[in-house]
């Protein structure tokens, strides 16, 4: 072991040992991040056994996307406190990245389920399904709200919940059931954002678990009232009632070219009587 600790490695051997390119070591030498233990008369660079730990520290920090300047500052003043601070900040960044990836995984799984459903979907079908509860961020809208104002509010909410892009969550509209019964089919009260993993449940809308009526409408939204009339007739015939909200969301917007092909999924909680 003592002999190994006194061994000097050529730049090629040191690069192979740490599975990096020789040019990387030459670059680190050039910028003063990791200089060879010695340079012999023939100009060859040699690295010591003790420098392995230093290089592994640098490589770990680079893998964590720490900048070279930041690494140089740390390597020039290595202390328990500075390393602890660096680790804590990177752990926090990794936690945020992991949370984002989990959210993206859930959104992608939802999209995949939609695609599987679309392959055999009969949009004329009205069915009953069981749903788990989930929390939604809601953005109030009024008949006077402009499209630009609504989009601005949605973007504000996505940033509040640390979503990086709009496609990191599912979106839709909410129509109160009392408005349906009063034939006010265009009087929506909220847009909703389904956050895959909400940071806090405070202030969020709880979409309840239970039995839901599920229906589909194809085309632009100006005639969606016809689908709601069909739903009300179906409910009346079946002898059960609706409550809460009708939740609308698009399920094929990633695979269409025109609004005429757009499919809206409608889900409404029902009370079986």
Automatic annotation (TrEMBL):
The record places domain HTH merR-type at: 8-77
What are the GO MF terms of this UniProt record?
A: DNA binding; DNA-binding transcription factor activity
Stored PROSITE patterns: HTH_MERR_2
Where on the tree of life does the source sit, at the highest rank? Bacteria
What keywords are assigned to this protein? DNA-binding
Q: What's the name of the protein?
A: Multidrug-efflux transporter 2 regulator
Q: Which Gene3D superfamilies match?
A: 1.10.1660.10, Regulatory factor, effector binding domain (3.20.80.10)
Question: TM segments?
Answer: none
InterPro entries with a match to the protein in the record: DNA-bd_dom_put_sf, MerR-type_HTH_dom, MerR_fam, Reg_factor_effector_dom_sf
The answer to whether UniProt assigns keyword DNA-binding to this entry is yes
């Amino acid at each position: 072991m003592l002999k190994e600790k006194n061994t000097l490695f050529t730049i090629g051997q040191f690069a192979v040992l740490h599975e990096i390119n020789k040019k990387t070591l030459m670059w680190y030498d050039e910028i003063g991040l990791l200089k060879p233990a010695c340079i012999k008369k023939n100009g060859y660079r040699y690295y010591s056994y003790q420098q392995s730990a230093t290089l592994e520290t640098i490589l770990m920090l680079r893998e964590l996307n720490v900048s070279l300047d930041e690494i140089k500052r740390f390597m020039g003043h290595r202390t328990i406190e500075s390393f602890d601070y660096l680790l804590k900040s990177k752990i926090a960044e990794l936690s945020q990245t992991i949370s984002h990836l989990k959210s993206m995984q859930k959104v992608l799984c939802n999209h995949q389920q939609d695609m599987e459903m679309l392959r055999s979907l009969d949009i004329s079908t009205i069915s009953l399904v069981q749903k788990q509860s989930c929390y939604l961020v809601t953005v109030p809208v009024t008949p006077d709200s402009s499209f630009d104002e609504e989009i601005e509010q949605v973007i504000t909410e996505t940033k509040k919940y640390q979503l990086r892009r709009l496609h990191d969550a599912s979106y839709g509209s909410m129509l109160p059931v009392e408005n349906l019964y009063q034939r006010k089919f265009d009087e929506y009260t909220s847009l909703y954002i389904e956050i895959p993993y909400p940071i806090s449940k405070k202030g969020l809308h709880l979409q309840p678990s239970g039995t839901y009526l599920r229906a589909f409408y194809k085309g632009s939204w100006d005639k969606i009232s016809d689908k709601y009339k069909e739903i009300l007739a179906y409910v009346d015939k079946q002898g059960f009632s609706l409550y809460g909200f009708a939740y609308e969301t698009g399920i094929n917007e990633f695979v269409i070219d025109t609004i005429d092909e757009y499919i809206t999924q409608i889900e409404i909680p029902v009370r079986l009587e």
